[in-house]
């Protein structure tokens, strides 16, 4: 599957753990270790944990199906720093697009200590071992956890839209769950900021309100821009 700047709606996700070696990581191990050690010197909060990367992908019949393998975060960040070359994987993850009662979306600006410092996008994270339910990679679980950790919002307070919206940009596939809050944008942002103020080292530095394309910024990641461009036109 290939594509760039696409939006696709699917009814469900069928994602499973299908372990396999990652030849790209094996071939670049020395350079990976050097780069990550340098990154950790600059940003000590970075942790080389285990992540889940998609190596098999199909979109058909209203279903995104795929297989994931386990890898180390250092290898994943090296792949990104290398410009996401063809390496047998997709950067596939889930995200929560929170919409206020007055039709705005709320995005987070990543903190200076994070890998994506300064970038603006929806609450999300690279899937990891905590997102496994048996052999199933559970994006619903991942999205709700990331939403709670980053913003303090509990998904039970929000109303989910049916299915998932896939924002596809080359090797990046973001499965977005749109969620509506009963609160207007300003009140919702204030609540999120209170959560950040209580955290010792919050993942987010700020909360941005996006009411339309005029609020887009160069710091906004491609998947958020793709999704929002589609939503504001629709």
Written overview of the protein:
- With 234 residues, this protein is an alpha+beta fold.
- The protein has one domain (4-233): Nucleoside Triphosphate Pyrophosphohydrolase.
- Helices cover 29% and strands 35% of the residues.
- It is built from six helices and 14 strands.
- Strands 1, 5, 6, 7, 8, 11, 12, 13 and 14 form a nine-stranded mixed β-sheet that branches. Strands 2-4-3 form a three-stranded mixed β-sheet.
- Strand 5 and strand 6 form a beta hairpin.
- Helix 2 packs across helix 3 (73-81).
- The model has no long low-confidence stretch (mean pLDDT 96).
Order of helices and strands: EEHHEEHEEEEEEHEEEHEH
Mean pLDDT score, rounded? 96
The total domain count is 1
Shape assignment: globular
CATH classification, class level = Alpha Beta
What's the architecture, going by CATH? Alpha-Beta Complex
Q: What is the helix fraction of residues, given as a range?
A: 25-40%
User: What's the number of extended β-strand segments?
Assistant: 14
Strand content: 25-35%
How many helical elements? 6
In terms of structural class, how would the helical and strand content be classed?
A: alpha+beta
Radius of gyration: 17 Å
Q: Provide the CATH superfamily.
A: Nucleoside Triphosphate Pyrophosphohydrolase
Q: Unreliable stretches, pLDDT < 50, 5 or more residues?
A: none
Terminal CA distance reads: 25 Å
Largest sheet: 9 strands, mixed
- Write the CATH fold name: Nucleoside Triphosphate Pyrophosphohydrolase
Q: Features of this protein?
A:
234 residues, alpha+beta, Nucleoside Triphosphate Pyrophosphohydrolase, 6 helices, three-stranded mixed sheet, 29% helix
